[in-house]
């Protein structure tokens, strides 16, 4: 399957999670095995060759990160919402397009010097990706890049990640 067809399966859901927000839903892509393979392969093509670990952002980033980890022999570290981890190394609270959120890094999941790519489905305001990078770096990891399926450039996410390699398969 071609990447264009796979990305054409993305669904827009208006007024979710709040009125005025257009949610970009990756579920139809994830549900189609050929589309999922096309997207994961395209993400892998953009990942820095020194990468050892995928930091996968809750929750759709988990699915992409696990596929990348299995397919290309990376470790996978889940970046979770509060209260989901039994042992937390670091916590970061950040602003979203429609509120605030917190991410946590599991204890002893990233070791100093490890090369880590941050993976998620969408880059919007950049708060989540920036928080993920901060968590990895607090643990001593080296962020090799941020890889997403979809970027919404009008929300300024890339500006919050200045100096970092940011790869998006699609911009809308």
Note down, in words, how this protein is organized.
The chain has 172 residues and is an alpha/beta fold. It has a single domain, classed as Rossmann fold (3-Layer(aba) Sandwich). Helix content is 28%, strand content 35%. The chain has five helices and nine strands. It has a five-stranded parallel beta sheet, with helices on both faces. It has a two-stranded antiparallel sheet with strand order 1-2. Strands 5-6 form a two-stranded antiparallel ribbon. It is globular, with a radius of gyration of 15 Å. The mean pLDDT is 95. Its main location: cytoplasm. This is Adenine phosphoribosyltransferase. Homodimer.
Overall average residue pLDDT? 95
Q: Radius of gyration in whole Å, from Cα?
A: 15 Å
The CATH class label is Alpha Beta
Summarize the amount of helix as a percent range.
Answer: 25-40%
In the predicted model, the low-confidence regions spanning at least 5 consecutive residues are none
Total discrete domains: 1
What's the total number of strands? 9
Largest sheet: 5 strands, parallel
List the total number of helices: 5
Write down the overall geometry.
Answer: globular
CATH hierarchy: architecture: 3-Layer(aba) Sandwich
Terminal Cα span: 21 Å
What is the secondary structure topology, with strand pairs?
Blueprint lengths: L2 H5 L3 E4 L7 E4 L1 H5 L1 H13 L7 E5 L2 H13 L2 E5 L8 E9 L2 E8 L8 E9 L3 H12 L3 E10 L14 E6 L1
Parallel strand pairs: 3-4, 3-7, 7-8, 8-9
Antiparallel strand pairs: 1-2, 5-6
Helix pairs in contact: 3-4
């Amino acid at each position: 399957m071609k990447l264009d067809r796979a990305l054409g399966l993305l669904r827009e859901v208006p007024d979710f999670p709040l009125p005025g927000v257009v949610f970009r839903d990756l579920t139809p892509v994830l549900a189609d095995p050929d589309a999922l393979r096309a997207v994961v392969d395209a993400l892998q093509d953009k990942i820095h060759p020194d990468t050892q670990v995928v930091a996968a952002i809750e929750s759709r980033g988990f699915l992409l990160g696990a596929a990348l980890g299995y397919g290309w022999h990376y470790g996978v570290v889940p970046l979770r919402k509060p209260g989901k981890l039994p042992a937390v190394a670091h916590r970061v609270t950040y602003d979203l397009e429609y509120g605030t959120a917190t991410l946590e890094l599991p204890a002893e999941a990233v070791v100093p010097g490890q090369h880590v790519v941050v993976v998620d489905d969408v880059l919007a305001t950049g708060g989540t990706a920036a928080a993920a990078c901060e968590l990895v770096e607090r643990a001593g990891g080296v962020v090799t890049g941020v890889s997403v399926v979809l970027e919404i450039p009008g929300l300024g996410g890339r500006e919050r990640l200045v100096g970092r390699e940011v790869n998006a398969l699609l911009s809308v």
